[in-house]
């Protein structure tokens, strides 16, 4: 680990001032500290924001949910309003990491975490995300766990967060505070696809601080849930995952929100699946037909071709679990 300066911010203004000068924000530190140990990240100044008042979960005036950036994963998953209104969020969090990490890691830090690609974390390997212009060793290396959606010749790394898949499905908004004031960024625009600049991962400006993630009010009743498929039962990242939320009235699907994880360079919204569901009545045939659209545009690599079929099956299974059949 390389030497660094450490500042504990006593208030929001102090944190923003330090961030504007190039400081890196840290709270739980469950991702950043690991990357510093491996010398993948070498920040010169850490700004500890764990004392800021961003630890509230509240229902918005319109009936949505606002989760403070410093609420831990465990606290968010256990919160009665989260479990009642959006069980897909609780399930995604409870299927993430270990209990010890969930007690430390924050919601803001979770969506800012970086890929678990082994080439990114191996400082001797070519990686455009870590060292722009060096190449992507995963393209012709062992790429079983890598992305099949949203890839480019510059990067094929997946985004590791489970709860980010739920946020993408629910069309959440990330609230930011920075030198230029407050702004909200739709979750779909907050995490950036690699394009030719895979080292740019977030639509966050210098010195900006995540203050909250807001989930919009959705029609009730709302059924939702999260399914994660992985090589082992616990403490493992997804090969594929599916977050599904359905609003049904009169036996007909009125609204559908579906996203996939483990297969995209960012949490992957599935609008073609959603369009196929809306206006239809639940049935085994419907779930199968809708899930067939989940892998549209997929570009599998040598070792991860299985993900195309696995994605379809994962989405179909979770549609059945959430939507049921008649």
TrEMBL record:
<dbReference type="Pfam" id="PF00941">
    <property type="entry name" value="FAD_binding_5"/>
</dbReference>
<dbReference type="InterPro" id="IPR016166">
    <property type="entry name" value="FAD-bd_PCMH"/>
</dbReference>
<dbReference type="InterPro" id="IPR005107">
    <property type="entry name" value="CO_DH_flav_C"/>
</dbReference>
<dbReference type="InterPro" id="IPR002346">
    <property type="entry name" value="Mopterin_DH_FAD-bd"/>
</dbReference>
<dbReference type="InterPro" id="IPR016167">
    <property type="entry name" value="FAD-bd_PCMH_sub1"/>
</dbReference>
<dbReference type="InterPro" id="IPR051312">
    <property type="entry name" value="Diverse_Substr_Oxidored"/>
</dbReference>
<dbReference type="InterPro" id="IPR016169">
    <property type="entry name" value="FAD-bd_PCMH_sub2"/>
</dbReference>
<feature type="domain" description="FAD-binding PCMH-type">
    <location>
        <begin position="1"/>
        <end position="220"/>
    </location>
</feature>
<dbReference type="Pfam" id="PF03450">
    <property type="entry name" value="CO_deh_flav_C"/>
</dbReference>
<dbReference type="GO" id="GO:0071949">
    <property type="term" value="F:FAD binding"/>
</dbReference>
<dbReference type="InterPro" id="IPR036318">
    <property type="entry name" value="FAD-bd_PCMH-like_sf"/>
</dbReference>
<dbReference type="GO" id="GO:0016491">
    <property type="term" value="F:oxidoreductase activity"/>
</dbReference>
<dbReference type="InterPro" id="IPR036683">
    <property type="entry name" value="CO_DH_flav_C_dom_sf"/>
</dbReference>
<protein>
    <submittedName>
        <fullName>Xanthine dehydrogenase family protein subunit M</fullName>
    </submittedName>
</protein>
<keyword id="KW-0560">Oxidoreductase</keyword>
